[in-house]
Amino acid sequence: MKQKIKVYTTSICPYCITLKRFLEGRNIEYEEIDASNSEEIQNLIIEKTGKMSVPVVVFNDTWVQGFDRPKLIELLGLSE
Q1: What is d(CA 48, CA 42) in angstroms, rounded to the nearest whole number?
Q2: How far apart are CA 66 and CA 53, in angstroms?
Q3: Contacts of 33 (CB under 8 A, 6+ apart)
Q4: 55: part of which helix (H) or strand (E)?
Q5: CATH number for position 70
């Protein structure tokens, strides 16, 4: 079974929009989780990454904070 990609975002985050366009442009399905109004989700992000900042991509138990294109390409096994 293919591992699901989770993307933590907020509605006012420009890098979140860029990340979603990046994934959609490559026909990559993902589950979007809005961290705006959930203290529980925000605390999870802080626990896993050390700070509350979005976007965050989770794939195969690896957490990538920010829109780090090279790291995402490597993590997801994509080509340029």
Answers
A1: 10
A2: 7
A3: 6, 7, 8, 9, 41
A4: none
A5: 3.40.30.10
